[in-house]
Amino acid sequence: MDGTRFGVFQVSSHLVGVPADHIHEMFILGDVRVPPRCPAYQRGAAVLRGSVYPAIDLRVCMGHVSARTEHESLLAQLSEREEDHRRWLAELEASVRERRPFTLAIDPRRCKFGLWYYAFETDDPVLRGVLDEFERPHAEIHALASEVEALQAAGRGDEAVRRIAEARTGLLASLLDVFQLTRAAMREAHKEIGVTVELAGRRAVLVVDRAEAVADLEEIGGPDDPLANTALPVELFARMARWRGSAAPVLVLDLAQVARLGAAPGAPGTT
Q: What domains sit in the chain, N to C, each tagged with a CATH number?
């Protein structure tokens, strides 16, 4: 495309291209200060070596939930699923003492956590390794329900209660440890990328998920242009292209439009 090379970045499920000659540097995004009156797409003020730049969240600009919000929601869900298993064991004990059927999930794939766990995918090997630690204690604590049911049926309710007490300090404690380790691993793995770019004579930071490459792009036009039939905010993009040698579509940012976002009221350095 006119000899211009592009930085290609992952933003949610999309690839986004930024002209390489407008990119100054990329860095791991740290804490971002949020001043009053910031629109949702403005993450606030990113500080890099003492300089302050408006940070524009490309996910939000494209109609997606920000990676930060998505990450915080996932951590909150894991805490809820941890609490589910405390309640699960308490309900199992109550069902024994009150001599009534246990009605919560026995199959580890059918509880709320199991539904999430067996569908979740990650390409982070450290996080994947931590997640694999769930398999044994999670399956075994759910298997306890069948064991307790058999003990009850045999008239050995006291033994069933003892088995639950042992599980509370054994299996459940092991499972809760893995929940804690997983949240710590997720916090460590969550690293958004800041891309410092030149926008209309001033610098700003684009917040993206991941840097993919610096590459040549081939423009897509005519009836093959996916921008012609998309729910994305097309005004943000100058054109659709392909990564040369790949079929992957790349949305090429219109930097003039992005500059207007960076200069909106509430952005750092504006009034």
A: 5-64+192-262 (2.40.50.180), 68-189 (1.20.120.30)
